Input
Amino acid sequence: MAEQASVALFRAEVEAARTHAVGSHAERWARAIAAWREDAQTNRAWLLFATSLLCRTGGTRWAVDPFLLPERIGQKPDYAAAAADLTPLDVVFLTHGHADHFSPQLLTALAHHNIAWVVPDHLHERLLSETSIPPNRIRVARAGEALEFLGIRATPFTGAHVSVPATGYLIEAAGKRLLFPGDTRSYDTSLQPCLDAVDVLFANLWLGRATALQEHPPLTDALVRFCLAHQPARIVLMHLHEVGRSPDDYWTPRHAQLVADAIAREAPRLPVTVPDTGDPIELG
Ligand SMILES: [Zn+2]
Output
């Protein structure tokens, strides 16, 4: 009985989280865009969606998997307005082709912008066939081959998504090492090539398939070990509020708190932040 009661409680919590994410998205998107476009020298990032990030380092403006929340809930986003908001983009990094990361419609709306597109080799054909991005703006990301532009050095590596090809990035910018392993489904750290210390680890929260309504999802400690293996000075937990998912796969601040508490037991002084859409993430 107690277990059924907690499932009902957690299901209600997911629905409250979803309502919050959908209801606050437009205002939070606008807040992120306004702060990102400021002519400031601070190095910061802002979440646009579950793992969709806007970043500004050394005056260069870049994004990882730009995406619009309304697309995930069957609403037709205003792609042209979003593309206008994103006009200052210098570089876009793409990680993989899942429907909560890769939006051909948004990318096509951005196709005429002066953007350098960093596209994994496994996604290159889809980008060419499903968007109108000019081929001469595309840089193909291959594992281990560093790319450099506008003060950014990006080293792609094979992500541990397992079920689909995926690419992670070590991005060195403004004197910081920023690690984006991407969606990770195996926490076997021997699969991770970038195990030197990083300044900020952007970790995508995932605690096991269809386990989000459990009180203690099974992979919490595995994710913690994975995070600590990267010797990060800071951890940013992402991939909450993926509003296109069913409740048993929807990660909320409760799950992030479970992970943050487990990290605190292992590394009490290690800062862990769980940003909501639009909140500034300091990159130092
Ligand atoms: Zn994915």
Remarks:
- DSSP finds six helices and 14 strands in the chain.
- The longest strand covers residues 152-158.
- Residues 96, 98, 101, 161, 183 surround zinc ion (CB under 6 Å).
